[in-house]
Structures are given as structure tokens and as C-alpha cells.
Amino acid sequence: MASKFQRKPSPGGTGGMGGASSVSSTPSNQPRKRVKRCCRNFVTFMCTQVGVGALIVIYAICGAFAFMHIERQFEDKTAGLVMELRQNCSQKLWSITEEHNIIDRRLWTEATNKVLREYQAQIAGVVKHGYVGRSPEQIWSFPAALMFCLSVITMIGYGNMVPRTPWGKGLTVIYATFGIPLYILYFLNMGRVLARSFKFLYRSLHDCTQEHPRLDRIDALEGGVSLTRKKVIVPSTACLWVIFFYVLTGTVMFANWERWSLLNSFYFCMTSLCKIGFGDFVPGASLTTTADVNAATQKLQEDISADPAELAQLQSVAADQHSKLAINFVYMLLGMGLVAMCRNLMREEVRLKAREMREDAKLCMEDTRLRFVGCCGNPRDAYEDDYY
């Protein structure tokens, strides 16, 4: 009877458990486990500070190329309309001049003012609908497209350039849907890392300013006393000084590269880091693009009186614009990280101050209660025995 319930050996000569392990380690399952392990490691790396930073840079660069490809296909008909309005205005002015000449100066002035006001209103309407006097190739250069992507994912929204095509508008919605959570993850991670690093640096400087902190620790260890390290809180003034020097560095950099005044450059840095983003000053808009170089080359070929030195200067400026663009892009991303760092450090100080204020309020209320009881009743009943 016992032989009926005996387990038959597996074909490989092992028991039931050995057969299960051989099935789980079959060659068909090995690639699947390897893929799962690689995916798990990739997701873990992308959640780190380096991974999130690299991902947001790659995301911005891919978005810039995508918007360049889409928006450069837009056929801008406003340039021809503006040219037609300009020609009509000049023709009307010439007709008025031929009609009145200098016989009646008052009628000539009134007629020309009427034509100029009409032309001004027409041009204002065209500009209101997005005309900036440049072609889509000049507008959507790589520096400008990269700053557009950065303004979308960081929620600054400069507004100096907008997508004009339906595909560009749809891509902006999708791009912002995935880019904004990615930026928030970068904001939180970078703020945490920079806050930890700055706190360590501040604590080290604080220990160096103390009188013989190392000797005090050695004496405490020799005496068998455990010396608890005092918690150091970074003050808000230190965070404000860091932001001020960072903005000052950006002020000098943008004023030199973008040909802005110091006030305008400082104004841009503050409005950008505070996420106001008016859009009147945007880096990359004044950089020389390939379309500008091609236009200068064509002008030099058609116009004999054109200066060749101007074309050479444009080519030299366009050659080093990519390095400036990379530094501008890193400056904005690092600035957002510093803002997150100051937020974390100031929040810690605010929590400490709030806790101290709460404890002081409790002591004040307790002292007020004891004084009230002492004034209204027997003073000996108001205090405990250990007070005497």
C-alpha cells in the first residue's frame, strides 16, 4: 500500500522540487528575467538626481527638434500682407502729394495723417495676430525652440513665441502633459540634494568657526561621555545671499551675451526664477541663426555695396552660439534647483521657529494661568510643592 503513494522520480533523476526548479530556470525564462532586471535598474536610475537631470535635458532637446520640424512648415502669409499694406500706403501718400502739392498745406497734412493712421491700425492688427517681421525659419531656431520647451515644462510661459500650426498646438499639450511632472520630479530631487549639500557645507564652516570643537570631542570621549552634536539650521539670510549672487552672475552673463542692459538682464533673471515670465526678454531670441547667415550671404551676392565683414562677423557669432546656449540652458535649470534648495532650507527654519513659538506660547499661557490663580485664590494652591 505504501508503494502506491510513492512519488515517481523525474526524468532528470531528481525529485519533485528539483523538477520545479529546473522548470523555473529553463532557458526560455532567462531572457525575460534579464529584461525585467534591466527595466528595473533603468527605472531606478531614472529616479535618481543624475537620471532625472539627464532625462529632462534629453526631453527638452527632442522637443526642440520636434517643434522646429513642425513649425517651420507653417506658411506665413502675413509678410506678403504687410508688404501690400506698405505699398498701398506709399501709393496713397504719393497720390495725395500729386493732388495737393504745396498749394494747400492744411489739406495735404490732414489727408496724409488719415492715411498714416489707417496704416498704423492695420499694422497693429497684424502684429496682434502674431506677426513679428521674421520668417518661421528665423523664429524657430534651435536656441529659441529649446527655450520654448524649457518655458513649457517649467511653467514659466514667456509667450514671446507660440505654435501656429494645429500639429504644433497639439504637440504642446502632449509635451506639457508629460514634461511638467518630469520637471516637478527634478525640482524635488534637485532641491533635496542641493539642500543636503549646502547644509553640510554650512555645518562644516560653522564647526570651523567654533573654538576648539575637536578638543572638546576628544575630552568628552576620553571621559566616557557621549557628546551629542548640536543641530545646525541654515538661516534664511544665507539662502537669500546664495540666490542674490546667482542672479548677479546671470545678470552679467546675459548682459554680455544677449546685449541687454544690466537692469534688463537682472529683471529677466528675477522674473524667470520667480516663474513670472513676462516674455519681453528671452535668451536665444537675439542669437544669430543659420537663416540670418543665409540671408546675409544672399544680400552680399545681390548687393555689390554690401560689407563682407558683416557676413564674417555673423558667421563667427553663429559658430559659438551653441556653447552659450548650453550655458544658458544649464543656468536656468540649476537656478530652478537653487530655488528648490532655498525652499527646503527655509521650510526647515520656519518649522523650527514655529515649534519654538508654540512652546513659548504654552509657557506664556501657563504663566498667565498661574498668575491669574494666584491673584484670585490662595497663592499656595496655585503652585506645586516643588516650587518652594
From TrEMBL:
Q: Name one Pfam family in it.
A: Ion_trans_2
Q: Which InterPro entries match?
A: 2pore_dom_K_chnl, K_chnl_dom
* Keywords, ordered alphabetically: Ion channel, Ion transport, Membrane, Transmembrane, Transmembrane helix, Transport
Q: How is it placed in the membrane, per its record?
A: Multi-pass membrane protein
Name the residues that span the membrane.
42-68, 139-158, 170-188, 232-255, 262-278, 325-346
Q: Which GO terms describe its molecular function?
A: outward rectifier potassium channel activity; potassium ion leak channel activity
The record's GO CC annotations read: plasma membrane
Q: Per the database record, which ranges form the Potassium channel domain?
A: 133-195, 242-284
Q: Where is this region: Disordered?
A: 1-32
UniProt lists the family membership as follows:
Belongs to the two pore domain potassium channel (TC 1.A.1.8) family.
Q: What is this protein called?
A: Potassium channel domain-containing protein
Organism expressing this protein natively? Drosophila yakuba (Fruit fly)
